[in-house]
Specification:
44% helix; alpha/beta; six-stranded parallel sheet; Rossmann fold
Length: 237
C-alpha cells in the first residue's frame, strides 16, 4: 500500500513551518504543511474561508491521507471533512474543540477587533512574547508571523464562528482524533464534539497548553501516528 500522507494545518498567526519537526518524528509518513491564506509566504493574500478550503484540496494527494490541524487549522480541517466526507481517511483536531459561540467566542471576537486598532506589529510583539512563555521559553520565531498573520485574524475567526461547531463531525465514518492540552481553554467543548462523533478518540495531555504541538511534540506525534495507523486499517479507496 502507498505510504500515508499527513496534511497538517497551522493556526492563526502561524505558518506551515509550525510543523517543521514532524517529518523526523513520523518516519515513513509524507508530511505536507501548507501555508493558509494570509499567513507565511501567502501573507499578501486576504484570508477567506473558500481560500482556506481550496488550500486543503490542493494539498491532498491520491492514496491514504489524514488531515489534521491545530487551532484555526483544526476548524478548517473539520469543515473540509464535513464537506468532503469521502475524501479523507482520518481527521485530527488539535486544540480545536472550543465551541465558537457564547461568551468564549466573544473574547476572541473582541481581541480580533482590537488588532487593527492597536496595529498588527505592536500586537505581534506582545503576543509573541506571551507565546514564548507559554511554549516554555522556546524560540518560536520560525513558526510565527510578525504582523501579517495578525492582520488575517479578524477574517479567520469570523469565519470559524460562522462556519464551525460540533455538528460538523456528525456522520463522519473515518477515524477522528480530538487532542488537547490539559491547560488549553480550547478543550472545554470537547464533550460536545465527542458526542457528535461517538467513535472519536479523545486525548488530553496533562499540563500542556494550547501550544501542545510545540511543547509536547513527541506526545502529539505519537497520537498522530495512532491516528494514521487507524486510518490505514480502514482505508478503502
Amino acid at each position: 500500500m502507498t505510504a500515508p500522507t499527513l496534511v497538517l494545518l497551522h493556526g492563526t498567526r502561524m505558518r506551515g513551518s509550525f510543523w517543521r519537526d514532524y517529518p523526523a518524528l513520523l518516519p515513513g509518513v509524507r508530511v505536507v504543511a501548507p501555508d493558509l491564506p494570509g499567513h507565511g509566504d501567502r501573507a499578501g493574500e486576504d484570508f477567506t474561508w473558500e481560500g482556506a478550503l481550496a488550500t486543503v484540496e490542493a494539498a491532498l494527494p491520491d492514496g491514504p491521507v489524514v488531515l489534521a490541524g491545530h487551532s484555526l487549522g483544526g476548524y478548517v480541517a473539520m469543515a473540509y471533512a464535513a464537506a468532503h466526507p469521502h475524501r479523507l481517511d482520518g481527521l485530527g483536531l488539535i486544540g480545536a474543540t472550543g465551541v465558537p459561540t457564547g461568551a468564549g467566542a466573544a473574547v476572541y471576537r473582541g481581541f480580533a477587533r482590537l488588532v487593527p486598532r492597536l496595529g498588527e506589529e505592536r500586537v505581534a510583539r506582545r503576543v509573541n512574547a506571551l507565546m514564548r512563555r507559554l511554549a516554555g521559553g522556546r524560540d518560536v520565531s520560525h513558526v510565527t508571523d510578525e504582523g501579517a498573520g495578525y492582520a488575517a485574524m479578524p477574517a479567520a475567526w469570523a469565519a470559524v464562528m460562522s462556519e464551525c461547531g460540533p455538528g460538523l463531525l456528525g456522520g463522519l465514518d473515518i477515524p477522528v482524533l480530538l487532542l488537547n492540552g490539559g491547560l488549553d481553554q480550547m478543550r472545554l467543548g470537547v464533550r460536545a464534539y465527542a458526542a457528535a462523533c461517538p467513535g472519536a478518540r479523545v486525548v488530553t495531555v496533562p499540563r500542556a497548553t494550547h501550544f501542545l504541538p510545540l511543547t509536547h511534540p513527541e506526545a502529539c506525534a505519537r497520537e498522530l501516528r495512532r491516528l494514521l495507523d487507524r486510518a490505514l486499517q480502514t482505508y478503502r479507496r
